[in-house]
Structure formats: structure tokens, C-alpha cells
Amino acid sequence: MNSIFHSGLSKDLSLILNDSDDFNVIIQAGENQNTKEFRAHSVILRARSPYFKRAFSSNWITKKNNMIMFNKPNVTPIVFEMILKYIYVGELDLAKKSGEDMLGLLFASDELLLEELFEYIQDYMLKEYHGWIKQNLVLVSNAAFKLSSKKLQDYCIDSICANPQSFITSKNFPSLDKGILFLLLENVELVIKEIEIWNGLIKWGIEQTPGLGSMNDNINKWNQEDFEALKTTLSQFIPLIRFMEITRAEFYDKVRPYKDIIPKNIYEEIKEFYYKNTLPKSITLLPLRRASTIIKPQLITILANWIDGKDSNVLSYNNNYRFDLIYLKSRDGFDCMSFNNQCKEQGPFVALVRVDSKKIYGGYNSVGYALRGGSWLSSSTSFIFSFENDQDIITMKIGRVNHENKCIYENYHCIFFNFGSQLIVNRYGSGCDLHLNNIYDGFVDIFKCSNKLSIEEIEVLGVVKK
Predict the structure, then answer these.
(1) How does DSSP classify residue 239?
(2) 6-146 falls under which CATH superfamily?
(3) Is 414 exposed, middle or buried (0-12, 13-18, 19+ CB in 10 A)?
(4) What is the pLDDT of residues 22-53, one digit of tens each?
(5) What is the pLDDT of residues 282-316, one digit of tens each?
(6) How many CA atoms lie less than 13 Å away from 125 in the CB half-sphere?
(7) Where are the domains of the chain?
């Protein structure tokens, strides 16, 4: 029979850490004015950390009077004290620790190869410090991409993609690591206008280019050397911009002033696209960036074709419209006031509803939303549709309007949207009403009776003609 006495062992090791005079290692943690000297035992450090096992057996350690002298300027004293307590007694006090301290502890445990501690701190931060992480995404992202694990990296990317607008326009964005920026620009999950990505890239490039920065961001005062310097900084990022997703007006106002930083062949083909609407010949057409959190980019192309009156499910390239996310239930709240504030006077829009079956229902309102107090609107081009999932191009269905005078009902007091009393979302409950009706063709066989489905997500995409 084995008897285990961990509590006594832990107490004795704690005494060794705090009161022992037989130490043989002195470690100075921190730098500048924030430093502290710690005394430790090489045998314990070597047994608990592969990092120290290698470090103490190498020839580059410094000894003074038979004492191992070790410096860790990149680890703050408060973090190193937690590290030592974990190494000696397996205890950790995380109460009232700042986000910066937790990030430092995560980074130090990864560097010191304390795998158990690293995994614990990473999971703990994602659970207890998610609010702080989202408020400091640039800081955390820059650190996360230097870690051995991808869990925090993936969390940062997902958080950025969930709200890219505020991230890219934040004051700290210009200090983002270039490796992370490259991954973001490659990512098709960024639900944001391409012109906003371009504006953010320019802001980042100016700040990252020696001689420019906030003190020299007025391009009217730049010389050719300034443009060449910025071109060098952004050379690897320019090919990641989906210029065909930028409108003519945006191109003229925001891109054209920086034409000298764009390779000549790319710029000439972009101009030809805007003047003649011909697709570039030598530029690689990147996958469309995701305009929706509910459906994948290939279904955006289907919607564009439907808006143009083409009901085929052939995935032909359609660049006639830009789709802007203007309302998202999970982000803006499920109430009529939030919906009204986001959608009023936005022009034509596509409404998408994902229900608990993962099926997606939606409608295209070609007349827009103007906060009318309870009236039927007329449209000959509106339609409703359904997708079995977020990338369905096989079983999808579309129903075009056949009663123009009663295809859209608007009442800002209680209704989010109502397509011919066939697809309704209102403020009463959290369900989506699907009714038997014949305002839109092709859906009677689906909606055989009234049926309320639980809503997972709603979004409204503004449709802008390019």
C-alpha cells in the first residue's frame, strides 16, 4: 500500500524557496527600475524545467563564487515570483492579476518549457480574461503569434474577424506585427468593406515606414522618395487587396492618390477594369472576401446574380454589387430600435435568417427601409429564398414576387422585416414566422403551414450598385 503525503512535501519545499540558505542560483528578473533578485536551487529548477536543465548544463552560464548568476530581463519580477512558486510547490495565485501580468506569465511559461502551466494559463485567460483580450487585441495578437501554441492565435483572429471595423480603425492598429497583418489580409472571413482594409493598410504602412509616420502623413508634402519608401513597406501586401471590390468613387478618392505605391501592371489593369469593366489578365483574382457572417462568399455571388434577374445556380463571377453588413443580431441586439437605427435609409438590402436547423431563409428588399409607420410597399424585383446551409448551391430555392403591391410590409414599431407575410421577423419572441402564401412564387411547397423557427442569427446586408 502506497501512502502519499503531498501537503507536507509542499510545505517543506515552500520553506526551501523562502528561507533556505543553501541556494546556488541567483536570478535577476526584470529590467531598468523594475528588477528583483531571486534565490533558487539548480537541482529543483533543472528537474522541473527543460529550459533550465539545458541552460545550467551549457557553457554560457556565468558563475560567481560558485554561484550561478542568471538574468531574465524579459520576465517581470511579479511573473517570475509566480513561476518559482509553481516550480517549487505547484501553486498559483492568480487573484487580482492584471492582463499584462497574465500575458507575461503565459509568455514566460512557454519560454521556460513549462507545458502544464502554459496550457493552464492559456485556457484560463481565454475564459476569465476574454474581455481584456478583446480590448487589447493588437498587444495580445503580437504576443500570441510568438507562442508555440495556436489556440490564442486562433482566438485573436476569430475576435478580429468578428469585429474587424473597430480593430482596423483602432489607434493601436499601426503597431500590429506584419506577419499577423499578412494573415488577416489573406483571410476571406473579414466581413468589412475592402476600402476600409485599404485605408487601414495605408495607415499601417505610413506608421511602419521610417521617415513617414504621424509627423509626415500628409501625402501632398511627399516627394518621390517617400512614395518609394511606402511602396517598399507595403510590397507584399498590395497583391492581397481585392481592388475589384472597391467602388469607382472609392478608387478615385482613396486609391488613386497612392498610385505610385502600386506596381504599374496592377494599377493599369485596375484602371481598365473600372473604365471598361474587363477583368484583369495578369492579376490573380483572390477569393471574394466574406460579406456575410451567415453565408459563404460563393452564395454572395448567387445573390448578386439573382438581383440581376439571373436565376441560374451557376457560379459566374458577378462584381456588380457591394454587400455591406449593416445589422447583425448578435452584435447590435434583437430589438426594433437597434434594427431601425442600423437599417434606416440604407437603400436596398438582403435580410438573412439562420434558424436552429442551420437552414437559412432570406429576402431581397429592392426599395429599402425608410421607417414607414405601417404600409405595404410595391416592388417588382424583390424576392425570397432559402439555403440548406451556408454554402448550398444545389437545393437552394428562390421565389420571385408575383403580387407587386403587397410584397413588402413595413412597420417600424414591431416588425424587423416582412416579405409578403411569407417571411416575417418581428419583436414578439425570438422566432421566425414562415407562412403559407402566394405572394412569392416557388415556396408554397416548403411553407405548408404556419411554422415558427428559433432564430440563431439575423443579418442585413446593404446592397450597393457599383
Answers:
(1) G
(2) Potassium Channel Kv1.1; Chain A (3.30.710.10)
(3) exposed
(4) 888 889 999 988 999 998 888 888 888 999 88
(5) 777 777 777 888 988 888 888 999 999 887 666 56
(6) 28
(7) 6-146, 163-276, 297-465
